[in-house]
Description:
Distance between the termini: 30 Å
Number of domains: 1
Number of helices: 1
Amino acid sequence: MPIWSLPPVSSEPCIRLLEWRIFEILPQDTRHFVGLNASDRTGRVSSAIETFDVEASRGTTQSGRVYMLVGESGYADEARYVWARWCDVNGVKAYVDVTDSLDLGDAHDDR
């Protein structure tokens, strides 16, 4: 599977993520959304999360893109592959999955 550049935020300002996780890169402590883009089911890794509304399951990243977390959290094979490649390309040596430490309650039901 190839890894490619994303379209500019102006042409794709909002992404609905399926089967998503949130990972924190150590020691930088930046958090990133990882999941499947609902529009084409391709793996996606966000830039660093700047703001996150747990109740709305909605976050804005460093790029300005908005991510909507849809449905239950998960970890699809394609998202796992893209995350591993993204970590390799960006020199990430350590990270932790913080998804389960977030109190999302019922806020992530399908909309």
